[in-house]
Design brief:
Elements: H1 54-58, E1 65-80, E2 94-108, E3 112-124, E4 134-148, E5 151-159, H2 180-183, E6 200-208, E7 224-232, E8 248-257, E9 261-274, E10 281-296, E11 299-312, E12 317-333, E13 339-349, E14 359-370, E15 375-386, E16 396-404
Antiparallel strand pairs: 1-2, 1-16, 2-3, 3-4, 4-5, 5-6, 6-7, 7-8, 8-9, 9-10, 10-11, 11-12, 12-13, 13-14, 14-15, 15-16
Length: about 400
């Protein structure tokens, strides 16, 4: 089984590595052999000397528009322990297509960048806790970035800097799944629960990217600071418009540290609506998130946390709080191919109004990269600990592979 994975599109922010030989974001592509003058034909007279200086002869004309396709597939084999008392937990072991993404990204005059991407492996389930899911095609990214001096203005469907995991490209994620606070508990793996992070949404944002803030960035010896202010609909990421008259507002600060390390903090307020007319109700989410990644030699430390408070102005019911987070350590082993092993602790408590919904995960995993073929193979095993009042037998093992298109 193969899981093909390339990076999640990042537009002008360049959140993923470029293909071999490709120009860095914001720079024109290097000249190829086709751009060089053809060799003289044997026996033909030598060309006349050009009146232009040599520097002008070597200079390539500016390229106004450049673009490139990209994509990735993700396939895993998933085995979940069957719970003897809950019929929908663990009874659909087998292959699972996590992603089948195709897209295009490009630039115009090194000032405007765009990304449009579709995914053919969106998991659609009509009911909660059902093992019967269907694959469908869904729009994942559709945005444009316009550079305004040191700032970047973004508009369209994209992820704001709220979830720290949005800063990690799929081909850089060490374990098969995202942490539980972002992913939630998926159907058939336990009692289905949504993650706390917001995901994608239609809207606009202004960013000061760390790479342009005057610091040395992630690979240098200094620190580069950036920020984002975003106004989005705040509705479901596949919604065609907002669910009420009030937008979601978020703010984030991102610090790029030496050696591919970073630190971020963010806050978000989303006055959203649930239900259908005439029974629609308002619910207001106030979120705070933080994340970090620290690389020290062969050791990579990571972590993230989110806290959320939800109020119910329509019904006047009591407010609820939820929280989640993870801590992770990976160790790079000194072998021929890039090999990492590690451990992640994750916790999710989505509602203080329900006293038995807390879930803890202990995950051990390994990832082997094959750079020559743009592939990785991942293995992870997870021990799940539900609260005592609703214990399950739902430990799981996952074997995955990925290949960049």
């Amino acid at each position: 089984m193969w899981i093909v994975a390339a990076m999640i599109p990042g537009g002008a922010f360049a959140e993923q590595a470029a293909a071999p030989g490709a120009a860095p974001p914001g720079e024109p592509a290097p000249p190829t052999e086709a751009d060089q003058p053809a060799a003289d034909v044997a026996g033909s007279p030598a060309p006349a000397a050009s009146p232009l200086p040599p520097a002008a002869l070597r200079a390539d004309p500016p390229r106004r528009f450049t673009w490139e396709p990209f994509g990735y597939l993700r396939l895993q084999y998933l085995v979940v322990q069957n719970d003897p008392n809950v019929a929908f937990v663990g009874r659909d072991d087998g292959f699972e297509l996590q992603n089948a993404r195709l897209g295009v990204r490009g630039q115009l005059d090194q000032r405007i960048a765009f990304v449009v991407a579709l995914d053919g492996a969106v998991d659609e389930r009509l009911q909660v806790n059902t093992p019967d899911g269907k694959l469908r095609v869904g729009l994942r990214d559709a945005f444009a970035d316009v550079r305004l001096g040191p700032l970047v203005a973004r508009g369209g469907l994209s992820q704001a800097w709220v979830d720290p995991e949005a800063l990690v490209a799929d081909t850089e994620r060490e374990l098969v799944d995202n942490p539980i606070e972002s992913r939630g508990m998926r159907a058939t793996e336990g009692f289905q629960t949504s993650g706390l992070t917001p995901g994608r949404s239609l809207g606009a944002a202004v960013r000061l990217e760390p790479a342009t803030s005057g610091g040395t960035g992630g690979s240098g010896s200094g620190m580069a600071l950036g920020f984002e202010l975003a106004v989005q609909n705040g509705a479901d990421e596949l919604s065609s418009n907002n669910d009420n008259d009030k937008p979601a507002i978020s703010a984030a600060v991102l610090a790029r540290l030496p050696h591919d390390s970073w630190l971020m903090v963010a806050g978000r307020y989303n006055p959203r609506t649930v239900g259908d007319l005439p029974f629609r109700q308002d619910e207001n989410d106030l979120q705070g998130t933080a994340g970090l990644r620290i690389c020290v030699g062969p050791v990579v430390l990571g972590g993230g946390a989110i806290a959320q408070r939800t109020s119910y102005p329509t019904t006047g019911g009591p407010s609820q709080t939820g929280f989640g987070g993870h801590a992770q350590v990976m160790l790079k082993l000194p072998v021929t191919l890039p090999l990492e092993v590690g451990y992640r602790f994750g916790i999710l408590d989505p509602s203080s109004l329900i006293t038995t919904d807390r879930v803890i995960e202990h995950t051990a995993g390994a990832v082997l990269a094959v750079p020559r073929y743009r592939m990785r193979v991942q293995l992870q095993v997870t021990h799940v600990v539900e609260q005592a009042a609703r214990e399950l037998s739902n430990d799981r093992a996952q074997l995955a592979a990925e290949l960049a298109l």
